[in-house]
Amino acid sequence: MLVILLCIIMLIVLVSWAKLNPFVAFLLVSIAAGLMLGIPINKVTASVQKGIGDILSGLVIIICLGAMLGKMVASSGAAQKIAEVLVQAVGQKYIQWALVAAGFIIGIPLFYGIGFVLMVPLIFSVVYKYKLPAVFIGLPMIASLSVTHGFLPPHPSPSALVVLFHANMATTFVYGLSIAIPAIILAGPVFAQFLRKIPSEPLATFRAEEIPADKLPSGVVSFFTALLPVLLLMFTAFFPYLGVTNDSVLKLVAFLGDPSIVMLIALIFATYTLGIKQGKSMGQISVYYTDAVKDISLILLIIAGSGAFKEVLTSSGVSNEIAESLKKFNLPPLVLGWVIAAIIRVSLGSATVAGLTAAGIVASLVVSEHVNPNLMVLSIGAGSLAFSHVNDSGFWLFKEYFNLSIKDTFRSWSVMETLVSVIGLIGVVLLDIFV
Protein backbone atom coordinates (compact mmCIF):
# COMPACT_ATOMS: atom_id res chain seq x y z
CA MET A 1 0.00 0.00 0.00
CA LEU A 2 2.88 2.38 0.81
CA VAL A 3 4.53 1.67 -2.55
CA ILE A 4 1.27 2.32 -4.41
CA LEU A 5 0.72 5.55 -2.48
CA LEU A 6 4.26 6.74 -3.23
CA CYS A 7 3.87 5.92 -6.92
CA ILE A 8 0.56 7.77 -7.20
CA ILE A 9 2.07 10.82 -5.45
CA MET A 10 5.09 10.61 -7.77
CA LEU A 11 2.81 10.51 -10.81
CA ILE A 12 0.82 13.53 -9.68
CA VAL A 13 4.01 15.51 -8.89
CA LEU A 14 5.65 14.68 -12.24
CA VAL A 15 2.58 15.66 -14.26
CA SER A 16 1.28 18.66 -12.33
CA TRP A 17 4.41 20.21 -10.73
CA ALA A 18 7.29 19.11 -13.01
CA LYS A 19 5.06 19.52 -16.12
CA LEU A 20 6.40 16.26 -17.54
CA ASN A 21 4.58 14.67 -20.45
CA PRO A 22 2.03 12.26 -18.86
CA PHE A 23 3.11 9.34 -21.07
CA VAL A 24 6.75 9.69 -19.99
CA ALA A 25 5.64 10.13 -16.38
CA PHE A 26 3.61 6.93 -16.56
CA LEU A 27 6.59 5.02 -17.96
CA LEU A 28 8.92 6.26 -15.21
CA VAL A 29 6.42 5.54 -12.43
CA SER A 30 5.51 2.13 -13.87
CA ILE A 31 9.16 1.05 -13.97
CA ALA A 32 9.75 2.38 -10.45
CA ALA A 33 6.63 0.61 -9.15
CA GLY A 34 7.66 -2.66 -10.74
CA LEU A 35 11.11 -2.56 -9.15
CA MET A 36 9.77 -1.56 -5.71
CA LEU A 37 7.09 -4.28 -5.80
CA GLY A 38 9.62 -7.01 -6.48
CA ILE A 39 9.18 -7.71 -10.18
CA PRO A 40 12.54 -9.04 -11.48
CA ILE A 41 14.51 -6.27 -13.15
CA ASN A 42 14.66 -8.21 -16.42
CA LYS A 43 10.85 -8.53 -16.52
CA VAL A 44 9.75 -4.99 -15.65
CA THR A 45 9.89 -3.72 -19.22
CA ALA A 46 7.97 -6.79 -20.38
CA SER A 47 5.16 -5.93 -17.94
CA VAL A 48 5.16 -2.33 -19.16
CA GLN A 49 4.98 -3.42 -22.79
CA LYS A 50 2.24 -5.95 -22.06
CA GLY A 51 0.16 -3.32 -20.27
CA ILE A 52 0.50 -0.91 -23.18
CA GLY A 53 -0.36 -3.60 -25.71
CA ASP A 54 -3.32 -4.94 -23.76
CA ILE A 55 -5.04 -1.60 -23.32
CA LEU A 56 -4.33 -0.26 -26.80
CA SER A 57 -5.34 -3.49 -28.52
CA GLY A 58 -8.90 -2.94 -27.34
CA LEU A 59 -9.04 0.83 -27.70
CA VAL A 60 -6.81 2.15 -30.49
CA ILE A 61 -9.13 1.19 -33.37
CA ILE A 62 -12.22 2.40 -31.54
CA ILE A 63 -10.71 5.72 -30.43
CA CYS A 64 -9.13 6.51 -33.80
CA LEU A 65 -12.22 5.62 -35.83
CA GLY A 66 -14.39 7.39 -33.27
CA ALA A 67 -12.29 10.54 -33.58
CA MET A 68 -12.57 10.38 -37.38
CA LEU A 69 -16.33 9.92 -37.16
CA GLY A 70 -16.54 12.78 -34.67
CA LYS A 71 -14.51 15.03 -36.96
CA MET A 72 -16.81 14.23 -39.89
CA VAL A 73 -19.93 14.80 -37.79
CA ALA A 74 -18.55 18.17 -36.67
CA SER A 75 -17.06 19.37 -39.98
CA SER A 76 -20.06 18.41 -42.12
CA GLY A 77 -22.47 20.37 -39.94
CA ALA A 78 -24.25 17.22 -38.72
CA ALA A 79 -23.39 18.04 -35.10
CA GLN A 80 -24.69 21.57 -35.60
CA LYS A 81 -27.91 20.17 -37.04
CA ILE A 82 -28.32 17.66 -34.19
CA ALA A 83 -27.81 20.42 -31.62
CA GLU A 84 -30.38 22.63 -33.33
CA VAL A 85 -32.96 19.84 -33.43
CA LEU A 86 -32.42 18.96 -29.75
CA VAL A 87 -32.66 22.55 -28.58
CA GLN A 88 -35.77 23.15 -30.70
CA ALA A 89 -37.34 20.01 -29.21
CA VAL A 90 -36.66 20.71 -25.52
CA GLY A 91 -35.47 24.30 -25.44
CA GLN A 92 -32.02 25.56 -24.51
CA LYS A 93 -33.02 25.58 -20.85
CA TYR A 94 -33.36 21.77 -20.78
CA ILE A 95 -30.60 20.80 -23.24
CA GLN A 96 -28.51 19.33 -20.42
CA TRP A 97 -31.30 16.91 -19.50
CA ALA A 98 -31.79 15.95 -23.15
CA LEU A 99 -28.10 15.06 -23.40
CA VAL A 100 -28.27 13.06 -20.14
CA ALA A 101 -31.19 11.03 -21.48
CA ALA A 102 -29.37 10.45 -24.76
CA GLY A 103 -26.23 9.37 -22.90
CA PHE A 104 -28.18 6.92 -20.73
CA ILE A 105 -29.98 5.31 -23.68
CA ILE A 106 -26.80 5.11 -25.73
CA GLY A 107 -24.76 3.93 -22.75
CA ILE A 108 -26.81 0.76 -22.23
CA PRO A 109 -25.63 -1.05 -25.39
CA LEU A 110 -22.31 0.78 -25.84
CA PHE A 111 -19.01 0.21 -24.10
CA TYR A 112 -17.92 3.30 -22.19
CA GLY A 113 -15.02 4.17 -24.47
CA ILE A 114 -17.15 3.99 -27.61
CA GLY A 115 -19.96 5.99 -26.05
CA PHE A 116 -17.49 8.64 -24.91
CA VAL A 117 -15.89 9.26 -28.29
CA LEU A 118 -19.29 9.19 -29.99
CA MET A 119 -21.01 11.64 -27.66
CA VAL A 120 -18.19 14.15 -27.17
CA PRO A 121 -18.77 15.80 -30.59
CA LEU A 122 -22.45 16.23 -29.75
CA ILE A 123 -21.57 17.79 -26.38
CA PHE A 124 -19.08 20.16 -27.95
CA SER A 125 -21.45 21.17 -30.74
CA VAL A 126 -23.95 22.33 -28.10
CA VAL A 127 -21.19 24.04 -26.10
CA TYR A 128 -19.81 25.99 -29.06
CA LYS A 129 -23.11 26.89 -30.68
CA TYR A 130 -24.86 28.14 -27.54
CA LYS A 131 -21.74 29.32 -25.66
CA LEU A 132 -22.42 27.14 -22.61
CA PRO A 133 -19.85 25.93 -20.02
CA ALA A 134 -18.34 22.70 -21.37
CA VAL A 135 -18.01 20.81 -18.07
CA PHE A 136 -21.45 21.93 -16.89
CA ILE A 137 -23.05 20.58 -20.07
CA GLY A 138 -20.80 17.58 -20.69
CA LEU A 139 -20.24 15.98 -17.28
CA PRO A 140 -23.88 14.88 -16.75
CA MET A 141 -23.90 12.98 -20.04
CA ILE A 142 -20.54 11.39 -19.20
CA ALA A 143 -21.98 10.45 -15.78
CA SER A 144 -24.82 8.57 -17.47
CA LEU A 145 -22.32 6.65 -19.63
CA SER A 146 -20.22 5.79 -16.57
CA VAL A 147 -23.17 4.54 -14.52
CA THR A 148 -24.38 2.20 -17.26
CA HIS A 149 -20.81 0.90 -17.63
CA GLY A 150 -20.48 0.07 -13.94
CA PHE A 151 -24.01 -0.97 -12.98
CA LEU A 152 -25.86 -2.49 -15.88
CA PRO A 153 -25.53 -5.63 -17.96
CA PRO A 154 -24.61 -6.22 -20.81
CA HIS A 155 -21.44 -4.33 -19.92
CA PRO A 156 -18.43 -6.62 -19.30
CA SER A 157 -17.94 -6.32 -15.55
CA PRO A 158 -21.63 -6.48 -14.44
CA SER A 159 -22.30 -9.33 -16.88
CA ALA A 160 -19.31 -11.31 -15.59
CA LEU A 161 -20.42 -10.70 -11.98
CA VAL A 162 -23.93 -11.93 -12.75
CA VAL A 163 -22.48 -15.22 -13.96
CA LEU A 164 -19.99 -15.50 -11.11
CA PHE A 165 -22.63 -14.95 -8.40
CA HIS A 166 -25.34 -16.95 -10.23
CA ALA A 167 -27.54 -13.87 -10.22
CA ASN A 168 -30.44 -13.18 -12.59
CA MET A 169 -29.53 -10.88 -15.48
CA ALA A 170 -33.01 -9.35 -15.82
CA THR A 171 -33.45 -8.82 -12.06
CA THR A 172 -30.01 -7.25 -11.78
CA PHE A 173 -30.84 -4.94 -14.67
CA VAL A 174 -34.12 -3.82 -13.05
CA TYR A 175 -32.47 -3.24 -9.66
CA GLY A 176 -29.62 -1.49 -11.44
CA LEU A 177 -32.01 0.87 -13.21
CA SER A 178 -33.62 1.85 -9.91
CA ILE A 179 -30.18 2.81 -8.56
CA ALA A 180 -28.73 4.20 -11.77
CA ILE A 181 -31.38 6.87 -12.36
CA PRO A 182 -30.96 8.73 -9.01
CA ALA A 183 -27.17 8.28 -9.23
CA ILE A 184 -27.11 9.93 -12.67
CA ILE A 185 -29.38 12.78 -11.58
CA LEU A 186 -27.46 13.60 -8.39
CA ALA A 187 -23.93 13.09 -9.77
CA GLY A 188 -24.85 14.62 -13.13
CA PRO A 189 -27.14 17.66 -13.50
CA VAL A 190 -27.33 18.40 -9.74
CA PHE A 191 -23.57 18.20 -9.11
CA ALA A 192 -22.81 20.05 -12.36
CA GLN A 193 -24.52 23.15 -10.97
CA PHE A 194 -21.35 23.69 -8.90
CA LEU A 195 -19.07 23.40 -11.94
CA ARG A 196 -20.32 26.24 -14.11
CA LYS A 197 -17.17 28.32 -13.61
CA ILE A 198 -14.59 25.64 -14.45
CA PRO A 199 -12.61 26.98 -17.45
CA SER A 200 -12.57 24.58 -20.39
CA GLU A 201 -11.66 24.97 -24.04
CA PRO A 202 -12.41 21.54 -25.54
CA LEU A 203 -10.32 19.97 -28.30
CA ALA A 204 -10.46 22.00 -31.49
CA THR A 205 -10.78 18.86 -33.61
CA PHE A 206 -14.47 18.69 -32.76
CA ARG A 207 -15.09 22.36 -33.40
CA ALA A 208 -16.39 23.28 -36.84
CA GLU A 209 -17.17 26.66 -38.36
CA GLU A 210 -20.80 27.72 -38.28
CA ILE A 211 -22.43 26.48 -41.51
CA PRO A 212 -25.42 28.23 -43.09
CA ALA A 213 -28.68 26.40 -42.41
CA ASP A 214 -29.35 25.71 -46.10
CA LYS A 215 -26.04 23.83 -46.43
CA LEU A 216 -26.50 21.55 -43.43
CA PRO A 217 -27.32 17.85 -43.90
CA SER A 218 -30.87 16.90 -43.00
CA GLY A 219 -31.83 16.05 -39.44
CA VAL A 220 -32.60 12.44 -40.39
CA VAL A 221 -29.21 11.93 -42.06
CA SER A 222 -27.39 13.66 -39.18
CA PHE A 223 -29.04 11.65 -36.42
CA PHE A 224 -28.93 8.34 -38.28
CA THR A 225 -25.25 8.68 -39.20
CA ALA A 226 -24.19 9.76 -35.71
CA LEU A 227 -26.23 7.01 -34.04
CA LEU A 228 -25.49 4.24 -36.56
CA PRO A 229 -22.96 2.54 -34.23
CA VAL A 230 -25.60 2.45 -31.49
CA LEU A 231 -28.21 0.99 -33.82
CA LEU A 232 -25.83 -1.68 -35.08
CA LEU A 233 -24.79 -2.71 -31.57
CA MET A 234 -28.38 -2.78 -30.34
CA PHE A 235 -29.36 -4.96 -33.31
CA THR A 236 -26.56 -7.46 -32.64
CA ALA A 237 -27.36 -7.45 -28.90
CA PHE A 238 -31.00 -8.36 -29.44
CA PHE A 239 -30.45 -10.66 -32.44
CA PRO A 240 -29.99 -13.84 -30.33
CA TYR A 241 -33.56 -13.37 -29.04
CA LEU A 242 -35.04 -13.55 -32.54
CA GLY A 243 -34.78 -17.34 -32.59
CA VAL A 244 -32.33 -17.60 -35.49
CA THR A 245 -30.32 -20.82 -35.21
CA ASN A 246 -28.32 -20.83 -38.46
CA ASP A 247 -24.67 -21.03 -37.39
CA SER A 248 -23.34 -19.02 -40.34
CA VAL A 249 -25.79 -16.20 -39.72
CA LEU A 250 -24.92 -16.12 -36.01
CA LYS A 251 -21.20 -15.90 -36.79
CA LEU A 252 -21.82 -13.10 -39.29
CA VAL A 253 -23.86 -11.11 -36.78
CA ALA A 254 -21.18 -11.64 -34.11
CA PHE A 255 -18.57 -10.35 -36.56
CA LEU A 256 -20.67 -7.31 -37.45
CA GLY A 257 -21.30 -6.64 -33.75
CA ASP A 258 -17.62 -6.34 -32.88
CA PRO A 259 -17.10 -2.70 -31.75
CA SER A 260 -14.18 -2.17 -34.15
CA ILE A 261 -16.21 -3.42 -37.13
CA VAL A 262 -19.19 -1.33 -36.04
CA MET A 263 -17.06 1.81 -35.94
CA LEU A 264 -15.54 1.00 -39.33
CA ILE A 265 -18.97 0.53 -40.91
CA ALA A 266 -20.19 3.76 -39.34
CA LEU A 267 -17.16 5.68 -40.63
CA ILE A 268 -17.59 4.34 -44.17
CA PHE A 269 -21.27 5.28 -44.06
CA ALA A 270 -20.45 8.77 -42.74
CA THR A 271 -17.81 9.21 -45.44
CA TYR A 272 -20.59 8.93 -47.98
CA THR A 273 -23.58 10.58 -46.26
CA LEU A 274 -21.70 13.47 -44.63
CA GLY A 275 -18.79 13.70 -47.05
CA ILE A 276 -19.20 12.62 -50.66
CA LYS A 277 -22.95 13.25 -50.73
CA GLN A 278 -22.36 16.76 -49.35
CA GLY A 279 -19.98 17.54 -52.23
CA LYS A 280 -16.66 16.97 -50.45
CA SER A 281 -13.77 15.26 -52.25
CA MET A 282 -11.93 12.28 -50.82
CA GLY A 283 -8.90 14.55 -50.49
CA GLN A 284 -10.80 16.88 -48.16
CA ILE A 285 -12.21 13.96 -46.19
CA SER A 286 -8.75 12.43 -45.78
CA VAL A 287 -7.48 15.72 -44.36
CA TYR A 288 -10.29 15.64 -41.77
CA TYR A 289 -9.34 12.12 -40.74
CA THR A 290 -5.63 12.91 -40.54
CA ASP A 291 -6.30 15.95 -38.37
CA ALA A 292 -8.56 13.88 -36.09
CA VAL A 293 -5.86 11.27 -35.46
CA LYS A 294 -3.21 13.96 -34.83
CA ASP A 295 -5.42 15.54 -32.20
CA ILE A 296 -6.01 12.34 -30.24
CA SER A 297 -2.48 10.89 -30.52
CA LEU A 298 -1.45 12.24 -27.10
CA ILE A 299 -4.61 10.78 -25.57
CA LEU A 300 -3.68 7.36 -26.94
CA LEU A 301 -0.20 7.63 -25.41
CA ILE A 302 -1.60 8.65 -22.03
CA ILE A 303 -4.04 5.74 -22.07
CA ALA A 304 -1.14 3.45 -23.01
CA GLY A 305 0.83 4.75 -20.03
CA SER A 306 -2.05 4.07 -17.65
CA GLY A 307 -2.23 0.53 -19.03
CA ALA A 308 1.45 0.00 -18.26
CA PHE A 309 1.00 1.18 -14.68
CA LYS A 310 -2.03 -1.05 -14.16
CA GLU A 311 -0.24 -4.11 -15.53
CA VAL A 312 2.77 -3.60 -13.25
CA LEU A 313 0.52 -3.41 -10.20
CA THR A 314 -1.54 -6.40 -11.31
CA SER A 315 1.36 -8.68 -12.27
CA SER A 316 3.09 -7.95 -8.96
CA GLY A 317 0.13 -9.51 -7.14
CA VAL A 318 -0.54 -6.41 -5.07
CA SER A 319 -4.28 -6.39 -5.87
CA ASN A 320 -4.75 -9.85 -4.35
CA GLU A 321 -2.78 -8.90 -1.24
CA ILE A 322 -4.95 -5.82 -0.69
CA ALA A 323 -8.15 -7.78 -1.14
CA GLU A 324 -7.12 -10.61 1.21
CA SER A 325 -6.16 -8.17 3.97
CA LEU A 326 -9.51 -6.38 3.68
CA LYS A 327 -11.42 -9.65 3.91
CA LYS A 328 -10.52 -9.79 7.60
CA PHE A 329 -12.58 -6.68 8.38
CA ASN A 330 -15.92 -7.33 10.10
CA LEU A 331 -18.30 -5.58 7.67
CA PRO A 332 -21.67 -6.53 6.16
CA PRO A 333 -20.98 -8.53 2.96
CA LEU A 334 -22.55 -5.95 0.63
CA VAL A 335 -20.50 -3.15 2.18
CA LEU A 336 -17.36 -5.32 2.21
CA GLY A 337 -17.75 -6.04 -1.51
CA TRP A 338 -18.02 -2.31 -2.19
CA VAL A 339 -14.98 -1.47 -0.02
CA ILE A 340 -12.75 -4.11 -1.65
CA ALA A 341 -13.75 -3.04 -5.16
CA ALA A 342 -13.30 0.65 -4.29
CA ILE A 343 -9.79 0.23 -2.86
CA ILE A 344 -8.63 -1.92 -5.77
CA ARG A 345 -10.14 0.65 -8.14
CA VAL A 346 -8.23 3.48 -6.43
CA SER A 347 -5.04 1.41 -6.47
CA LEU A 348 -5.17 0.02 -10.02
CA GLY A 349 -7.47 2.39 -11.92
CA SER A 350 -9.44 -0.24 -13.84
CA ALA A 351 -13.12 -0.61 -12.95
CA THR A 352 -13.30 -4.00 -14.64
CA VAL A 353 -10.24 -5.38 -12.83
CA ALA A 354 -11.50 -3.98 -9.53
CA GLY A 355 -14.93 -5.56 -9.98
CA LEU A 356 -13.69 -8.99 -11.00
CA THR A 357 -10.95 -9.09 -8.32
CA ALA A 358 -13.40 -8.12 -5.59
CA ALA A 359 -15.90 -10.69 -6.81
CA GLY A 360 -13.36 -13.48 -6.47
CA ILE A 361 -12.73 -12.51 -2.85
CA VAL A 362 -16.34 -12.26 -1.67
CA ALA A 363 -17.87 -15.00 -3.83
CA SER A 364 -17.92 -17.47 -0.91
CA LEU A 365 -19.67 -14.91 1.31
CA VAL A 366 -22.63 -14.65 -1.07
CA VAL A 367 -23.49 -18.29 -0.33
CA SER A 368 -22.42 -18.56 3.31
CA GLU A 369 -24.10 -15.29 4.37
CA HIS A 370 -27.18 -15.74 2.12
CA VAL A 371 -26.57 -12.42 0.36
CA ASN A 372 -28.84 -11.38 -2.50
CA PRO A 373 -26.54 -12.07 -5.50
CA ASN A 374 -28.19 -9.39 -7.65
CA LEU A 375 -27.41 -6.75 -5.03
CA MET A 376 -23.82 -7.98 -4.65
CA VAL A 377 -23.34 -7.45 -8.40
CA LEU A 378 -24.49 -3.84 -8.00
CA SER A 379 -22.52 -3.23 -4.80
CA ILE A 380 -19.25 -4.32 -6.37
CA GLY A 381 -20.15 -2.47 -9.58
CA ALA A 382 -20.64 0.73 -7.58
CA GLY A 383 -17.38 0.23 -5.69
CA SER A 384 -15.49 -0.29 -8.93
CA LEU A 385 -16.34 3.30 -9.97
CA ALA A 386 -14.98 5.01 -6.83
CA PHE A 387 -12.57 7.95 -7.07
CA SER A 388 -11.13 7.71 -10.55
CA HIS A 389 -7.79 9.53 -10.66
CA VAL A 390 -4.45 9.60 -12.50
CA ASN A 391 -4.08 5.82 -12.90
CA ASP A 392 -7.41 5.52 -14.75
CA SER A 393 -7.58 5.98 -18.53
CA GLY A 394 -11.08 7.49 -18.14
CA PHE A 395 -9.59 10.31 -16.05
CA TRP A 396 -7.21 11.20 -18.87
CA LEU A 397 -9.84 10.85 -21.58
CA PHE A 398 -12.02 13.40 -19.79
CA LYS A 399 -9.09 15.71 -18.96
CA GLU A 400 -7.64 15.78 -22.47
CA TYR A 401 -10.88 15.93 -24.45
CA PHE A 402 -12.19 18.78 -22.27
CA ASN A 403 -8.69 20.31 -22.02
CA LEU A 404 -8.76 20.71 -18.23
CA SER A 405 -6.09 21.14 -15.59
CA ILE A 406 -5.31 18.24 -13.25
CA LYS A 407 -6.97 20.15 -10.39
CA ASP A 408 -10.19 20.81 -12.32
CA THR A 409 -10.32 17.19 -13.51
CA PHE A 410 -10.15 16.05 -9.88
CA ARG A 411 -12.93 18.38 -8.73
CA SER A 412 -15.21 17.49 -11.65
CA TRP A 413 -14.56 13.99 -13.01
CA SER A 414 -13.13 12.37 -9.85
CA VAL A 415 -15.82 13.80 -7.57
CA MET A 416 -18.55 12.77 -10.03
CA GLU A 417 -17.29 9.17 -10.13
CA THR A 418 -17.10 9.08 -6.32
CA LEU A 419 -20.64 10.43 -5.99
CA VAL A 420 -21.90 7.75 -8.38
CA SER A 421 -20.11 5.09 -6.34
CA VAL A 422 -21.38 6.26 -2.94
CA ILE A 423 -24.95 6.83 -4.16
CA GLY A 424 -24.83 3.34 -5.68
CA LEU A 425 -23.87 1.81 -2.32
CA ILE A 426 -26.65 3.71 -0.54
CA GLY A 427 -29.11 2.46 -3.13
CA VAL A 428 -27.95 -1.14 -2.66
CA VAL A 429 -28.30 -0.90 1.13
CA LEU A 430 -31.82 0.54 0.81
CA LEU A 431 -32.86 -2.13 -1.69
CA ASP A 432 -31.52 -4.81 0.67
CA ILE A 433 -34.02 -3.64 3.29
CA PHE A 434 -37.01 -4.11 0.98
CA VAL A 435 -36.03 -7.05 -1.22
TrEMBL record:
GO molecular function, one term: gluconate transmembrane transporter activity
Recorded topology in the membrane: Multi-pass membrane protein
The keyword Mitochondrion is assigned to this record: no
Broad class of the protein's primary localization: membrane
InterPro entries: Glcn_transporter
Entry keyword set: Cell membrane, Membrane, Transmembrane, Transmembrane helix, Transport
Highest taxon above the source species: Bacteria
Keyword Ribosomal protein attached: no
GO CC annotation terms, alphabetical: plasma membrane
Transmembrane intervals: 28-48, 55-74, 94-120, 132-152, 172-195, 216-241, 253-275, 287-309, 335-363, 375-398, 410-434
Record's subcellular location: Cell membrane
Family listed: Belongs to the GntP permease family.
Protein name from the UniProt record: Gluconate transporter
Organism: Mucilaginibacter pallidiroseus
